[in-house]
Task: inverse folding
């Protein structure tokens, strides 16, 4: 699936790989899986084929080199580490709204992304969701669930209206 992430045309899998790299939680399999998905979706470049055939034990620097070359061949712009984590959180919020991930996963991953980067663009969402989640877990407050959904929608609205804003 391709989605516009700010100014970046990139697949969800590539975005997840880049975010993992930026957060130092990357799985080498993620880049290989991305390459195989691209090939299955009809994309084909020499470097993409090489990347898809690499072993998960391939050194990370070599894997990154192939990943960047494949993106270049496909004319995909690889987001900077600063932008990719923000865009990853925007995508997590989208996935939650689509029903693809749970509220618990959204809260946990958003807070982890914020605490690892201190990105002010996701600070309000992370801290608000974390505080409301404590109420949901402790007391099963339905009003807190509604407030969480409203906060997520507000975050997505701001992100889509001004994807390069700092707030």
Result:
């Amino acid at each position: 699936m391709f989605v516009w992430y700010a100014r970046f045309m990139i697949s969800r899998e590539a975005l997840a790989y880049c975010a993992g790299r930026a957060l130092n939680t990357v799985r080498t399999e993620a880049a290989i899986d991305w390459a195989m998905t691209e090939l299955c979706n009809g994309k084909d470049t020499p470097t993409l084929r090489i990347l898809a055939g690499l072993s998960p034990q391939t050194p990370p620097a070599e894997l990154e080199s192939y990943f960047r070359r494949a993106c270049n061949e496909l004319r995909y712009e690889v987001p900077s580490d600063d932008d990719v984590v923000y865009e990853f959180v925007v995508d997590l919020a989208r996935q939650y709204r689509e029903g693809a991930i749970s509220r618990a996963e959204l809260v946990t991953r958003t807070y982890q992304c914020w605490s690892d980067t201190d990105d002010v663009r996701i600070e309000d969402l992370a801290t608000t969701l974390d505080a409301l989640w404590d109420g949901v877990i402790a007391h099963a407050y339905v009003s807190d669930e509604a407030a969480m959904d409203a906060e997520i929608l507000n975050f997505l609205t701001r992100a889509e209206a001004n994807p390069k804003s700092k707030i």
